[in-house]
Specification:
Two copies of one chain form a homodimer. Chain A is of the alpha+beta class. Chain A is about 45% helix and about 20% strand. Chain A folds into two domains: about 90 residues, Winged helix-like DNA-binding domain superfamily/Winged helix DNA-binding domain (Arc Repressor Mutant, subunit A, Orthogonal Bundle); about 45 residues, Ferric-uptake regulator, C-terminal dimerisarion domain (Dna Ligase, domain 1). In chain A, a hairpin with a 5-residue loop joins strand 3 and strand 4. The interface between A and B is medium-sized, with 32 and 32 residues. The structure holds a DNA duplex (25 and 25 nucleotides).
DNA sequence: GTTTGTGCAAAGCATTTGCAGCTGG
DNA sequence: CCAGCTGCAAATGCTTTGCACAAAC
């Protein structure tokens, strides 16, 4: 709980820093994002936020998510099937495993793969600006 | 030219095999796909196909692409920004580099990365069914 | 002749936007 | 106060679909 309000605090601070007004709707969304351990989509975030602040509209959820994304506070993922899903940015970069059957998202991290990517791009005359790596998987029996 | 009609031939064969009728519109689309070296989207494919067969509609392009995808004849890619882009399936599996500035697509292949992916999934109790790896890059100076 | 494919226009879906009113600083 | 938000509803962009006609086999 301490952690959670810390994160919310950091987020509101980020809003303030960006010269952006701190409204009831935005606070609600930030709280929801802070406590989310899954990777919810906009509709899901909207539903959760409405429980804290019934006046939030889906349009505002989208607008706020875009602002937060620009500020680097959240990441937007466009996995296969359905709409975008969001997560709060955390320290370490990571990629995702998606459980095909359940839709569950598992995070992982591989420096080796990262290095190989850079290497491949370099050999072809490119610099990697960002990448997308998703493993669509099924649980082993 | 021989190669190209070979590929078209293989594709029509694939249609026949799937018990699907071979129509003028589908032949046009197949020809366009066979000669495409880039990764065109549906609208672009529609425009090219219309040059061969003016009666093709965009709806049919989409419908045919879905059939071809199910038959494993083409692959659909959903890169960031804009709609889906298509390419004919070729022997070797590969991933993509996307030039952020030009939209150009470069293919590459890395067994090492592939192996690492399997390894990571296995350790977490998963089998990789398929994956998506895209490097969004900028040309080095 | 059936059965399947086609064009057209309308519908779907996720997301964005214009606008008149509300509200934070 | 007044710029910056907000909800609402309408608009967007890509893709799919219902339907009556056309064309494969």
């Amino acid at each position: 709980m301490g952690d959670e309000s810390d994160r919310t605090g950091k987020m509101t601070a980020a809003l303030r820093k960006a010269g952006i007004r701190v409204t009831r709707q935005r606070i609600a969304l930030l709280a929801v994002l802070a406590e989310a351990v899954d990777h919810p989509d906009a509709v899901e975030l909207h539903e959760r936020a409405k429980r804290l602040e019934p006046t939030v509209s889906l349009a505002t959820v989208y607008r706020t998510l875009s602002v937060l994304e620009e500020e680097g506070v959240v990441h937007r993922h466009s996995f296969q099937g359905g709409g975008a899903r969001f997560e709060t940015t955390h320290e370490d970069h990571h990629d995702h495993i998606l459980d095909i059957d359940t839709g569950e998202v598992i995070e992982f991290q591989s420096n080796k793969i990262e290095q190989l990517q850079e290497e491949i791009a370099r050999e072809l005359g490119y610099d990697v600006v960002h990448h997308r790596l998703e493993l669509y998987c099924r649980k082993k029996l």
